[in-house]
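Per reviewer request, we include the raw input and output of the structure prediction for the construct analysed in the revised manuscript.
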Amino acid sequence: MAEPVISARGLRKVYGDFTAVDGIDFEVRAGESFGLLGPNGAGKSTTMRMIGGTLDRSGGELTVLGMDPADHGPEIRAHLGVVPQQDNLDEELRVRENIVMYGRYFGLPRSYLLPRSQELLAFAQLEAKADAKVGDLSGGMKRRLTIARGLVNEPKILMLDEPTTGLDPQARHVLWDRLFRLKEAGTTLVVTTHFMDEAEQLCDRLIVVDHGRIMAEGSPRQLIREHSTREVVEVRFGSERNAQVVAQLEGVGARNEVLPDRILVYTDDGEAALEEINRRGLHPITSLVRRSSLEDVFLRLTGRTLVD
């Protein structure tokens, strides 16, 4: 088997008395779309910064493209594309100029960057905006431009930190399509997110992280199969009644979970479970039968939702 492009063993980052990353192990293979899924503050961004060589680790081993970021940071970054949480585009430059000027940081000549920028604008569906001011772009356009800029050096690994935070559903789906095309072309993607649907859409394999530790690892389908049921019934009886009613749901489904606004009933047959709830005369205010998601996996592993 080929050597992984990223390998971490016992990776740690400590700030005084606070441990942000607590001894995690993982590997990323070439051409894979790998995800770090967890709530804000779980240690995802800290891990990304250590991979990129912009943050020193406190302990453990880490190699990226066969090199240690502590010793070969510039060499590693030459082969990385980075899409940060917040768009850091230069508002003083126009759209095409943002790509060209960023490429100059890698020492790339303008003779290469001009045709390359045109390719990237086409990829990002921004050709018509090439000479527009960055401030005139929508949030989704700015995000696509940030990704296009991160591809200017033809990176072996593209790192995306919360790539669709703040975007509307339509813009998210357009961005997912662009990233899926990169994945099909063989680019290695490393994605952090707290959106379970995003992880399911983009990631071949992922780790679920909480408080700097890995709670589970596998493909989205594998994690759901191992840690949840096929379906979930969401029932609402009112915030004052949910805790009282849950005892009457004993035996309905494999297990139940009480949240502030609803009760989750985990089962392999949601419709049958809902029929049983109504047969017991409980009659929820609202009900929904859906398939299990990575959110349910995280709730099972940690007792809280991804957005807590």
